[in-house]
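User: Design a sequence. Structure:
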């Protein structure tokens, strides 16, 4: 599905001055029964949670005061306000999918349900009984920030432009959607070419809407700092190229009293200041130079939140149970490299990782090892292969590895010593079977005598200590790892062109996986620049399983197919599982505050408000 998942695990993630454990709050909501005709919302399976004409989301304060400033941060720099193409470094605060500060979408994705949406730009949504089309009726009062109305022509233009001029991911993501056409003064209909794909009717609600008139004057596919014409709650008001971008709240914005928006977007000004690296950014936060951060470093969380004693009571730390998504954070092999195409080689290198040693020595035993591509969700495969999953995989038995049917997958753990002799022996045996032997302390190919050397590409310097023991163990196997840390823009460029041997990737999974699985695993997308099939996986069985998952007719069928797909990915040894945190960790200065309630699946910073009336500089 289209999912709101922030890849939190890309940095090392973790207790300090004031800890508040926050649990889900708010009165229970009763699911609404669907009825014929256009609806105010739509769910992938079953009914929506919120009723028609609901006043506000359960976690917000509908009377939250407007005003003040929210100071946020980013790392690196930026040179573009266009996040929809692969060129340039887009500024923070803009999003290639979903509502952003500047752009709206047709629908708002619920923060309280696995996959449900409510009208945003669209007043209503209607799906054909045979699921061959979905139709949206736009709100009468919706306008761009220059006062011009948002029309069906703008929606159609946005859809067509993203598919033809946007990132290649859009063409893949909307590959099963046909033409869009105007069907009324404020109505637009999309053709669904795959009626079995229940998700199609929902993913169309997630693309940003642009002004057709504006982009007849300015090229859409250009990466620059020309301030775009938006239609959302904020406009870009100031820019210091590469250093700061400032968003200003649009007064009397047309959407501010809608049910999904009431009590949100409360700050008059939102700024993103850029810092050279994560360590500098962290020190800036402790000096109260910005207001809020998601803490991904467990070391920082446990040891380093030492602020001025006079300010100690002003700093709030939250640990919120992480229920919003599944996750696989792993060391990903690039199968576009010949040395990693042998599954035995990939399995062998996994034995060099000692997670228990890492957790003891680096992570204060705060993490858990990833055990699935859907870790910590009901979608994760666990235990022996059950009959319902066996029935899915049996038709492909001749093309799959026998372990899938005979064994239980468990990630390699090590012995907490950092250099498990037993595991390294297993690795040597597998490497020998794959045609690699040690000569003079160097692992070489039996056929070509070429040494086994590869580069591990990183973008965060703090990840060096995470992989150090892994690299040491590989050296004992005769493998040389060239560790390279690059700055953000170079990293993005190399990722987009698949110019790496191994990287650390965090694959965030929604609770209703669907079309995005093609982006992650599809053979067709393995070589498209800017894609998300980082491993270059090209496996026809996985391709079939992805399509079957997308066409799941009900929730249980979806779960079974996700678990079956998970088993194949795990036993393919396409990556080496690392870790995840069972909680999300946030810190903020008490100049901003919130209702004390949190939605089930998303931490909503946009429901905060200012305690004071600070002005933006």
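Assistant: Done.
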């Amino acid at each position: 599905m289209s999912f709101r998942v922030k890849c939190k695990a890309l940095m090392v993630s973790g207790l300090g001055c004031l800890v508040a454990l926050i649990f889900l709050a708010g009165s229970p909501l009763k699911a609404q029964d669907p009825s014929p005709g256009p609806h105010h919302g739509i769910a992938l399976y079953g009914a929506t949670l919120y009723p028609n004409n609901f006043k506000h989301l359960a976690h917000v304060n509908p009377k939250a005061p407007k005003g003040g400033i929210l100071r946020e941060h980013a790392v690196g720099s930026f040179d573009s306000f266009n996040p929809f193409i692969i060129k340039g470094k887009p500024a923070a605060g803009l999003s290639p999918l979903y509502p952003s500060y500047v752009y709206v979408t047709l629908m708002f994705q619920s923060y309280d349900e696995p996959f449900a949406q409510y009208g945003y730009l669209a007043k209503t949504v209607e799906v054909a009984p045979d699921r061959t089309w979905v139709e949206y009726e736009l709100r009468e009062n919706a306008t761009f920030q220059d006062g011009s109305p948002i029309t069906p022509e703008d929606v159609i233009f946005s859809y067509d432009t993203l598919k033809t001029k946007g990132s290649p991911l859009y063409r893949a993501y909307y590959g099963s959607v046909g033409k869009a056409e105007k069907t009324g003064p404020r109505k637009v209909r999309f053709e669904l070419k795959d009626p079995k794909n229940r998700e199609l009717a929902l993913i169309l609600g997630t693309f940003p809407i642009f002004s057709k008139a504006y982009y007849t004057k300015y090229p859409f596919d250009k990466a620059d700092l020309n301030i775009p014409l938006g239609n959302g709650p904020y406009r870009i008001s100031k820019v210091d190229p590469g250093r700061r971008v400032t968003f200003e709240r649009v007064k009397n914005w047309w959407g501010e009293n809608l049910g999904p928006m009431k009590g949100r977007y409360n700050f008059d000004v939102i700024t993103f200041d850029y810092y050279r690296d994560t360590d500098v950014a962290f020190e800036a936060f402790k000096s109260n130079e910005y207001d809020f951060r998601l803490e991904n470093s467990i070391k920082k969380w446990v040891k380093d939140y030492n602020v001025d004693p006079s300010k100690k009571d002003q700093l709030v730390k939250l640990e919120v149970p992480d229920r919003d998504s599944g996750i696989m954070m792993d060391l990903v092999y690039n199968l576009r490299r010949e040395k990693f195409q042998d599954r035995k080689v990939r399995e062998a290198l996994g034995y060099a990782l000692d997670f228990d040693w890492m957790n003891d020595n680096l992570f204060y035993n705060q993490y858990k090892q990833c055990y699935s591509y859907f870790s910590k969700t009901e979608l994760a495969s666990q235990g022996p292969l059950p009959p319902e999953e066996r029935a899915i995989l049996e038709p492909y038995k001749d093309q799959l590895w026998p372990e899938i049917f005979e064994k239980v997958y468990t990630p390699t753990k090590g012995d907490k010593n950092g250099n498990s002799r037993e595991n390294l022996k297993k690795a040597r045996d597998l490497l020998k079977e794959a045609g690699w032997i040690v000569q003079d302390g160097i692992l070489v190919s039996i056929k070509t005598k070429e040494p086994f050397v590869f580069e591990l590409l990183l973008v965060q310097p703090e990840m060096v200590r995470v992989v150090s023991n892994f690299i040491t163990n590989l050296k004992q196997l005769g493998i040389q790892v060239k560790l390279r840390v690059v700055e953000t823009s170079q990293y993005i460029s190399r990722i987009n062109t698949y110019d790496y041997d191994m990287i650390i990737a965090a694959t965030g999974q929604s609770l209703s996986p669907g079309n995005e699985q093609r982006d992650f695993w599809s053979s067709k997308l393995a070589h498209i620049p800017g894609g998300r099939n980082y491993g270059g996986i090209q496996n026809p069985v996985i391709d079939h399983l992805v399509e079957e998952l997308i066409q799941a007719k009900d929730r249980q069928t979806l779960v079974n197919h996700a678990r079956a797909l998970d088993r194949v990915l795990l036993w393919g040894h396409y990556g080496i599982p690392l870790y995840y945190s069972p909680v999300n960790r946030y810190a903020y200065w008490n100049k901003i505050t919130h209702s004390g309630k949190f939605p089930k699946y998303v931490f909503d910073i946009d429901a905060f408000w200012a305690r004071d009336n600070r002005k933006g500089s």
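The first helix runs from residue 152 to 165. The domain at 326-580 is CATH 3.10.105.10 (Dipeptide-binding Protein; domain 3).
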